[in-house]
Amino acid sequence: MLGFFALLGRKTLDSFGRLGRATLFLLRALAGLPSLLPRPTLVIQQLYSIGVLSLLIIVVSGVFVGMVLALQGYNTLVTFGAEQSLGVLVALSLLRELGPVVTALLFAGRAGSALTAEIGLMKTTEQLSGMEMMAVDPMKRVVAPRLLAGFIAMPLLAAIFSFLGIMGAYVVSVATLGVDDGAFWSQMQSAVDFREDVMNGVIKSLVFGFVASWIAVFEGYDCEPTSEGVSRATTRTVVHTSLAVLGLDFVLTAVMFG
Amino acid sequence: MAKQRIIEIWVGLFVAAGFAALFGLAMQVSNIPVFQTTEGYDVTMRFENVGGLRERAPVTMSGVRVGRVKSIALDERTYEALVTITIESRFDRIPEDTSASIFTSGLLGEQYIALDAGGTDWYLEEGDEIALTQGALVLERLIGRFLTSMGQGDD
Fold first, then answer.
1. Contact at CB, A156 and B17, closer than 8 angstroms
2. Predicted structure pTM score
3. R_g over Cα of chain B
4. What are the tens digits of pLDDT across the range A14-73?
5. Sheet holding B80-88, edge to edge
6. Tens digit of each residue's pLDDT (9 = 90 or more) over A67-108
7. Interface of B with A (CB under 8 A)
8. What CA–CA distance (Å, rounded) separates A43 from B14?
């Protein structure tokens, strides 16, 4: 019985310790951002592996999510004779929710896990310690560029996702479901507000990008330096990012649209 | 070095695609208020009931949009709704005795103000008031009135 309480207490203290470490880590990484200014190549390299290499999954899922939304929405709306509002339905759900959230989840799976594994392996093979030996700060050389690339890539990926989703929905609804071309766009344009819908979606994706890259980089840096530790850290990245994104999404939605 | 260059090109394409998507969302999907600050003159009018009319709702004449609703307020003396609309300055020859009514687009759609041109040679200017107005038809009231008149018919 006592053992149970001891375990509980240790776990609680552990998780607070992790949260504190993560915050201090973030502050140190942010302090390393200015040192990237003279060396943008580091960030470009990371933008390639985080952003460009995630494009394929974002493009394909964006188009398909849009097409499925159009099909599903049509089935419901057509019973009310309101299939002209299909564009509104698709655009609002993509811009406000699905674009940022699904992109963040895919980002966690595609880019976040890779970041954690990469940094974790660097730690396991003592490359990070090696850098320190050579008076190179791994915070500035390894962590900061990855973090910054994540911040930049995520909103762009979310924008691409939403845009292609709407295009996919457009193709399905106009070409195969017979929704009027003009009504699709005009109803969408009159219902979607730039500041209210598009910008709030961008703000969401900025927040998600920040959180996702932070978690991924921290898990890698903080992992146990064994092969098992790296694998556990990678799993944790995906799980924690998904939970954080969904939880934050609720808070942000309540604040923005509540 | 060549590999580095390819990476840079890809990243450039990625960033460009991202901003292009954002730009596409802004232009094609939403109506940017920044570009739509209607330049024009303000005209006021009073309605008995504005129903579900909202700010930025369209103001049309013969179905063509000529302006937008700027503000909706309550006149605390007469307890009527005081609606200010902005009419685009290129529509500067709207007769002074024009009447305004609130209609609904479709059965349950958005509400808008429709202007019906009058016949005088005097045109509306900044700060004028449209005197002839007809407020929104509230569906519940209409049904209520219909039911009362049916009830009276039975007697």
1. yes
2. 0.75
3. 24
4. 888 888 989 998 998 888 888 888 888 888 989 999 999 999 999 999 999 999 999 999
5. B129-130, B40-47, B80-88, B64-75, B58-61, B111-116, B99-104, B132-134
6. 999 999 998 888 887 777 888 889 999 999 999 999 999 999
7. 4, 7-8, 10-11, 13-15, 17-19, 21-22, 24-26, 28-34, 110
8. 14
